[in-house]
């Protein structure tokens, strides 16, 4: 399994019962290692909603891009209050990453 990569999106959401959802990747139409392309989970997503779980790979990619840009901006103009956002993004990315 390629731990540096995350399951390629998009992930889809379908209702599977009363307040139950199924989130899955399009693994049947993808090439690659099974562990890298397969996602299938079902259940109750609480107040977060299944769309948040389905958007997670895209949100991780966006967070990494934003962290890159904010780090550059902060280095060029220190003291412009990006540090809190940098720390929050770094923590969220670390939480989402697969441990080595």
- Strand elements, count: 3
Given helix and strand content, the structural type is alpha+beta
Helix share, percent: 40-55%
Q: Strand fraction band?
A: 15-25%
Uncertain runs with pLDDT below 50, 5 residues or more? none
Mean pLDDT: 85
Radius of gyration, in Å, reads 17 Å
Total number of helical segments?
3
Order of helical and strand elements: EEHEHH
Largest sheet: 3 strands, antiparallel
The best one-word shape is elongated
How many structural domains are formed by the residues? 1
> What is the end-to-end distance?
12 Å
> Within the largest sheet, what's the order of strands?
1-2-3
What does this protein structure show overall?
The chain is of the alpha+beta class and 100 residues long. The protein has one domain. The chain has a three-stranded antiparallel β-sheet, covered by helices on one side. Helix 2 packs across helix 3 (83-96). The protein contains three helices and three strands. The longest helix has 27 residues, at 50-76. 45% of the residues lie in helices and 15% in strands.
Summarize the structure.
With 100 residues, the protein is of the alpha+beta class. The chain has one domain. 45% of the residues lie in helices and 15% in strands.
């Amino acid at each position: 399994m390629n731990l540096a990569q995350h399951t390629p999106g998009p992930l889809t959401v379908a209702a599977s019962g009363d307040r139950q959802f199924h989130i899955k990747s399009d693994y049947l139409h993808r090439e690659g290692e099974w562990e890298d392309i397969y996602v299938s989970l079902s259940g109750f997503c609480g107040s977060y909603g299944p769309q948040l779980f389905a958007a997670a790979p895209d949100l991780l990619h966006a967070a990494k891009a934003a962290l890159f840009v904010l780090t550059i901006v902060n280095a060029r103009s220190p003291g412009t209050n990006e540090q809190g956002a940098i720390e929050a993004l770094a923590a969220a990315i670390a939480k989402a990453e697969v441990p080595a």
